[in-house]
């Protein structure tokens, strides 16, 4: 019995191949049907995943991904997975359900993703019962990597951040305003591009203006997402690179907003492995 599990964001996909004797973890570029068509997804699977899998035929596939909402989007993944792995036992669902299963298992709670994008939900131990729509990197994604990167770039170019920090940022990434506008408005995956600058925030978190920037982005996530569930003293779980790297700020703000953080993980895949090992 062989099971393939995937947790995919826009930047990276974490895979785990579980056999009777071992589990093998693999990373590939992200897959998001909002930004990639079926042929592009199939090509990525053929080039990045298949060469790394040395196993007997796969019996079950569980794919949780950003953008996997609605039948048409899920079919963009189902068809190439079915064709390449010759199994019809394929579950395709949102990365949010994957995060909830990873973080909460069979217990209820509020599950949150803070990575390249952001999302949250109420989870009853089996299914998502309510979701405040994240609305993507243009209309929402508060507290995410792309929202942090967008705010950093904007504050630098508008002269809001100190001159020294702005020059340090532009010099570190060899950027001009023209370069930035080209990448954001004319090239593919602007959300990934914006999120790629969050390490600069982490490296300079001791600068008061940088810390304030991060706190304000997180406050927007609490106020425009978590508070809307209207559950006082709720248990909240976080996963994702942004939650992990800025967990000290996240934990402090959670207390201010009356939430109880139960756990913060860097990636959902480890929790998903535990979840499905109890099933198969």
From TrEMBL:
InterPro entries: ATPase_NBD, Euk-type_GlcNAc_Kinase
Organism domain of life: Bacteria
This protein's name: ATPase
Organism name: Coprobacter secundus subsp. similis
């Amino acid at each position: 019995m062989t099971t393939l599990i995937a947790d995919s964001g826009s930047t990276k996909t974490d895979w785990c191949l579980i056999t009777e004797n071992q589990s093998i973890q693999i990373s590939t570029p992200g897959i998001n049907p909002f930004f990639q068509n079926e042929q592009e997804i199939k090509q990525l699977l053929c080039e990045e995943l298949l060469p790394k899998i040395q196993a007997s035929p796969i019996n079950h596939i569980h794919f949780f991904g950003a953008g996997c909402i609605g039948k048409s989007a899920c079919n963009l993944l189902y068809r190439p997975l079915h064709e390449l792995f010759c199994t019809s036992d394929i579950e395709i669902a949102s990365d949010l359900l994957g995060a909830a299963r990873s973080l909460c298992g069979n217990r209820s709670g509020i599950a949150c993703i803070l990575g390249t994008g952001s999302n949250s939900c109420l989870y009853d131990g089996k299914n998502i019962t309510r979701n405040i729509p994240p609305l993507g990197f243009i209309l929402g994604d508060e507290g995410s990597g792309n929202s942090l990167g967008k705010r950093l770039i904007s504050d630098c170019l508008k002269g809001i951040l100190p001159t020294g920090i702005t020059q340090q940022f532009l010099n570190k990434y060899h950027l001009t305003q023209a370069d930035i506008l080209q990448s954001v408005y004319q090239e593919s995956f602007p959300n990934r591009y914006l999120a790629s600058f969050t390490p600069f925030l982490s490296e300079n978190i001791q600068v008061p203006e940088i810390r304030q920037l991060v706190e304000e982005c997180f406050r927007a996530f609490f106020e425009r997402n978590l508070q809307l569930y209207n559950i006082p003293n709720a248990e909240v779980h976080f996963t994702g690179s942004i939650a992990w790297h800025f967990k000290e700020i996240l934990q402090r703000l959670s207390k201010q907003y009356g939430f109880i953080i139960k756990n913060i993980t860097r990636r959902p895949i480890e929790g998903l492995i535990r979840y499905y090992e109890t099933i198969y």
